[in-house]
Write a structure and sequence with these properties.
five-stranded mixed sheet, 7 helices, 5 strands
Length: 245
């Protein structure tokens, strides 16, 4: 048999070259796969928020346009409301899995914050007197739920946002405080960059549900600057300084 027609196997060097090429191709594909996976989680998280926002609207439809009043754990001792929104809305969202962003699986059971709308009640019910509001309403859990029709910019006002990991034991609300008081929740517990595929936290963003029923992904910082989309009063709508990450 003619030796030139015989089948020849791969040499060791040729095999090593093929393996090296496969490794290079895999390294090129991995970032794209990582981004695709992160985007899928972000979309699932946004779907959760959309359903929670729908639950909030259904609750308001059944309660004269009011969302659940801000629950303060321990307020029952003062005759106030201790039921947080997670419990108040449960008959409407039914599936507890909606409370967890896929990005937080294995890290946190409850991923979202409801706007406490403190700025509205302090300005309109207590003439801007934070001490009186804190003593008579906030700590005692004695102020009503926010009326959705009282939100002047529903398409630009956040009702639900994403929470940082590690703060699951705190009240599931986003509250504002005067600058000379303790840092507001937008600095402490709100996650402005829950979803990112590598890089610094400032390169990512987070999902938000708005009072008009929409859900949107906002890049890092866009929820608080140039306008503070968590606030409803002009005193607090001015943009806030970005938290240091």
């Amino acid at each position: 048999m003619n030796s030139t027609n015989a089948k020849r196997g791969f040499t060791l060097i040729e095999l090593l070259v093929v393996i090296a090429i496969i490794g290079v191709l895999a390294s090129m594909l991995m970032p794209a796969l990582s981004r695709a996976k992160a985007k899928a989680k972000r979309s699932a998280c946004q779907s959760n928020l959309r359903q929670l926002q729908l639950s909030l609207q259904m609750y308001a439809d059944d309660n004269q346009d009011l969302i659940p009043p801000r629950g303060t754990p321990g307020a029952e001792a003062y005759g106030g409301n201790a039921v947080v929104w997670v419990e108040a809305l449960k008959p409407y969202y039914t599936n507890p899995a909606l409370l967890q962003c896929p990005t937080d699986v294995g890290k946190a059971d409850q991923s979202y914050l409801l706007n406490g709308f403190l700025d509205y009640f302090v300005v309109n019910n207590y003439a801007g007197n934070w001490e009186e509001f804190t003593g008579k309403a906030y700590r005692a859990g004695k102020y009503p739920g926010m009326k959705l029709s009282n939100i002047p910019y529903p398409s630009e006002t956040i009702v639900f946002g994403e929470r940082k990991q590690g703060f699951e034991n705190q009240d599931p609300y986003m509250d504002f405080w005067p600058p000379d008081w303790a840092p507001s929740e937008y600095i402490v517990v709100v996650d402005h960059a829950k979803h990112r595929a590598g890089g610094s936290r400032g390169s990512g963003g987070s999902n938000h549900a708005f009072a008009d029923g929409s859900t949107r992904y906002l890049k890092y910082g866009a929820a608080v600057t140039p306008k503070n989309l968590w606030a409803v009063t002009k005193e607090f709508r001015a943009g806030l300084a970005l938290p240091k990450l």
